[in-house]
Amino acid sequence: MNISVVSLLLYLILGPFAGGLLAGIDRKITARMQGRKGPSVLQPFYDLYKLFNKQSVVVNDLQDFLVAGFLVFIIFTGCLFFSGGDLLLVFFALTLAGIFFVMSACSASSPYGSMASQRELMQMMAYEPMVLLVAIGFYIVTGSFAVKDIIHFSNIPAVAYMPGIYLGFLWVLVIKFRKSPFDLSTTHHAHQEMVKGLTTELSGNILALVEVSHWYENVFLLGVVGLFFATSDWWSAIVVIVTVAISYFLEILVDNVFPRVKWDFMLKSTWIVTLVAGVINLMVISLIKLR
Amino acid sequence: MQVAAFLICFPFIAAVVLALMKKHGKPRKYVVFGSSALIVAAMLYFVIGLLSSGKAVEYLENTHTIDLIMLIGEIFLMCLVVFLSFRHKKYYAALLSVVQTGLIAWLDLSGADETEKFHIYADKLTVVMCLIIGIVGTMICVYAVGYMKDYHSHHTEFKDRRSFFFAMLFVFLGAMFGLVLSSNLTWIYFFWEITSVCSFLLIGYNQSEQAINNSFKALWMNLLGGLGFALAIAYCSLVLHVSNLEELVTAKLAAGAVLIPVILLAFAGLTKSAQMPFSGWLLGAMVAPTPTSALLHSATMVKAGVYLLIRLAPAMCGNAAGFMVTTVGGFTFFVASLLAISQSDGKKVLAYSTISNLGLIAACAGIGMHEAVWAAMLLMMFHAVSKSMLFLSVGAVENRTGSRNIEDMHGLIVRLPGLAFIMIIGIAGMFLAPFGMLISKWAALKAFIDSNNILLVVFLVFGSASTLFYWTKWLGKLIAVPHQSGHLTNTTKVSQWFALITHAVIMIALVITFPLVSHSLVEPFLADMFHNTVPDIISTGNINIMLMMLCLIVILPVAARILTFGKKDTRVLSYMSGANAGDDRSFVDSFGNKKDLYLANWYMEDYFGENKLLKPSLILSSAAIVIVMVIAIGGAIG
User: Of A146, B153, B417, B445, which sits 20 to 30 A from B374 (CA to CA)?
Assistant: First the structure.
């Protein structure tokens, strides 16, 4: 069987398990940082099971459809990525999924959902330029948007050419992983000034689907981190796993160190980081290419 | 070629008939419907003929009569402008008009512009333009029949000048056909001036003080562009001895010599397509009834500007003209999309979005490479259909609910589901994958990177992010489902529905068949323009992926059913910390009183407001245009 089909299937089947496990490990590490013992690593799966068995309480019928859209397009995004597809299309599909999620909050027509939907949109507006620059950076360095070509480009990892873009991407991953200081619209911490933000009006089975989508999404995002370190050599797999683990640990550390900020600080700082780290890096690599 | 002549002349005849029909009622309606049907039929006949025969080029032996008619027409337009600007004490407009008409008349009469070149030129780009003008344009006329009736019953304070209004709509269509079918620069200029004056008359339709001020704003800006056009013609005929657009673009002349007319024409293109600093006229145009805005924003006027820029594309590749157009276009794309965030008036958001998208199209044309021009053409098509659809649906909502404010569209999907769905398709068409605009944006991005234009890349990625913000928050308003909100009876007229649904069908058809459109229309045009075979811009694999996304959206309701299978929903009110006052439209405040709930979007005036961003960006863009033009023209002459 074709390698891209295999990795697609692996993602489709193992994605949620990896994502759930990641969430479990995340909670464990966070707890240790805070001096707690923390729940079992499998706790996210227990939570999910419980959510599926809860009574489903909804405010309207449209939400089912919109959350399903979120899940389906997140899975589509990940599948496209792991099957070696076009990176720009991958990010466009991710945006579409994100919009379905925002819409599910808007459709509730409720104060908390509505507030959070605007904040979520603000977050999307903040991270979108950097995310696009990642795809552009890979294109300039490797001459292709296709993930499968990017991996086979050379035996020097792409991060060697685009350290700035990598740092910028780590910055926006804080937003994407919904980590403090940028967890404005919804958070996994207990302290949130807007109840549960985007998912306030979701419950039971539908909330479980949102959880599954997040797991799929997180695995996909770490896949993009891995792409910075992947080369055509076999041992690069080990490098990728190690660097992805370190990157994720950094995100957890940031989550526990910094308090939540206001939206304007998030927008400004993220756009400045995008301009400084991303665009300057882009200029440098396009100059190298011209030579 | 008789068909081409018919396409240009017939709308003018229809306009005269409509202008003479002073009585309201059935006869006018049938004349509008009949003429629209005739135009569509003739246009389709022409397009099919052209597609089967390839390119059509016509040299007309004896054009003295036609030239004379045009000269008389131009002088008539000048007199009209002079008369109106003296009446309203806006003398600068008269001055601009007199100078350029005088210049053209002198050239015409002195015979300096006589060369043996073809007058009519029709290729695949003409086909695309004819389709846009013929279908979208006539649909707007059909829509206007129902709309204007409602408009005057809502706005009794304005004088009912409907016969004039419909006449102007058709004059506009005729002028647009003339513009895209001609190749002789003087002819294009003639139609160009008609569209300028016509839009001026349409914007000032309701004769309120604001309308008159805004119409003069549109007039002077477009006349300034027209002056650039006239100067370009003068330079072409006196120095280069060229009287033909095709010849100018493909000319094997010294690069420096062509640069002057090209940059002047590009300047005219920028004013007409409402790029910064000339964005003001298009924003002002929204005081006019909705069909005017729809026509100006989608099928005509601004498309004339980008049409000219696309025609000039090969001549702008890599020179100062290209630099000016890409920089101003890219900048406009970014700034206009930021400004759109701070607007809550539906029509104003649409106006900023038009300016923003046209900026992108202009930037693509300015790059002048085949993939950029490909993106520009597809953007133009998708933009025409979805923008017209959005304007028409906003107009219909305004006539029904009395407001076009986006905040008042909260829960539209419950109140007016039909119009809300049309609007959702239109908005999705403007920025979402896998709809067309996004695909073209993707191609544009690729072209910007390939041409090593980092500044444009930056404008594009930041502009896309803000585009996402303002469209999605509008979408969120439409899709909200407040409890116990009633269904409003829909009073939208049959003619309006016909236009709206046709738009929606065309939009969806375009999304599905765009690879076909690209293959049969855009790629042959590019191959012709760049004199080589054009490599595939989107690989088959990626087209399949986009079609898969489309299928996913279609089967999404089924997927939602499967994912929530066996689920028994309990309906509750939305969460308000337990303070709901019986429903989710009000809550109990700290005094124990019932208070109505109001949910608003974010507009962030302090960051993206017009008073914050508009002035600096106008200054920056003006400076860019002036500096580039001075350096380029000075360099070419000296």
Answer: A146
